[in-house]
Write a structure and sequence with these properties.
The chain is of the alpha/beta class and 234 residues long. The chain is built from 8 helices and 10 strands. Strand 5, helix 3 and strand 6 form a beta-alpha-beta unit.
Amino acid sequence: MWQANIFTNFPEAFPGNLGVSVIGKALTQKMWHLNIVDLKKFPAKNDRIDSYPYGGGVGMLLSPITFEKAFNSLTENEKKFKRIYCSPRGRQMTQKDLEEISKTAGLTILCGRYEGVDQRILEAYEFEEISIGDFVLLGGEVAAMAIVEGIVRLIPGVVGDCESVHDDSFQQSLLEYNQYTKPAIFKNIAVPEVLLSGNHQEIKKFRSNLSKIITMQNRPDLWAKYVSDNIKLK
């Protein structure tokens, strides 16, 4: 069973989004496991888990002593999981990352708060700094939920229709095509006729072309990667 270990100052934030919809159902059905480690239970000194940074500056940093105690609460197998620290200075998480992690035994995520964590935690425990976008949050909890949700939905059996996962944005370096439902006309905007034709080959071609157009317009970086990847395959 795939497992997520999440180290946080705010365990009450979980399961949050991870407890609803198909992800929450899969959690209840024990298709994956969520292990929340409350850092406040492992004080370094005088019931404190953080301290002021050397050299001055605002905010507080998580103590490496606190993290060491918390990390040692894991089993030997859990200590072997890939480790991620959610940080805006890290490289951006990709769909490929999620796919690779979903095939492992689990993932350990450290959620920073306030000014962050002592750098020696990241170095000594070989954390990879990962960002979910070029913006700053108050802490890593929301980012951790996003990462875990992205991984769990890839676990076989969690999402009922495997094709829906395969067609999602970023799966083929392309963004997802537009989709429509009833009624056929809404506010004078009609569903593209090809989708009503019943010709599945033409529908597939239409959606593929639409994905390319949307990617080209909205994410030229992804479009360049798609073109480059396809040139290499030829």
